[in-house]
Amino acid sequence: MEMEKNKKNRYGFDFTPIGLDIKTFREAQKITREKLAETLDISPRHLQAIELEGKHPSLGLLAYIAMIFDMPIDPYIFPEKTDTKSAMRKRLDVILDKLNDRDLSILEATATALCKAKEHPED
User: Fold this and answer.
1) 83 pLDDT above the threshold of 80
2) Cα separation of 91 and 93, whole Å?
3) Predicted local distance difference test score (pLDDT) of residue 89
4) DSSP class of residue 114?
5) Residue 14 to residues 1, 7, 36, 78, 80, Cα–Cα distance (Å)
C-alpha cells in the first residue's frame, strides 16, 4: 500500500483539474452525481473519485463525458496552447447556453460597460 498520496499517474499527468471541471459542468446543468453516474453506467462513488480525487477515467468515459457537456479536453492534454479558453470561460459558456436572447442582451450591455470602464478608469 502506497503511503504517499500522489495525484499523478505513472505518466505524470494530473487528472484533478479535469475532475473538478466535470463537477462544475455537472453542477452548472443541475445534474446530480447519481443521475450522471447512471447515464455513464458507473457508480456514483467512481464518479466522485474522478471529480474530487484525481482518479483518471478511461478514454472512452472521458470522451463520453466531454460529449455530454460539450467540454473540450484539449486544454487539459495540451496546456501549453494559448489559444484555448480557460476553465472559467468554458463554465461561463455552459451557463450562457441556458439563457435567452433577452438575458444575453443584458449581459452584453454589462460586458460592454465593463470594457468601457476599463478603458477610462477613474482615478
Assistant:
1) no
2) 5
3) 81
4) H
5) 20, 6, 22, 12, 15
- CA angle, 57 as apex, 51 and 60 as ends, to 5°? 130
User: Cα(54)–Cα(50) distance, rounded to whole angstroms?
Assistant: 5
Taking CA 17 as the corner, what is the angle to CA 16 and CA 19, rounded to the nearest 5 degrees?
Answer: 65
Mean pLDDT of the chain: 84
> CA angle at residue 10 from 8 to 12, to 5 degrees?
50
CA 99, distance to chain mean position in Å, is 19
Q: Which three cell numbers stand for residue 78?
A: 495540451
Q: Is the pTM of this model over 0.70?
A: no
Average pLDDT score over residue span 50-70? 93
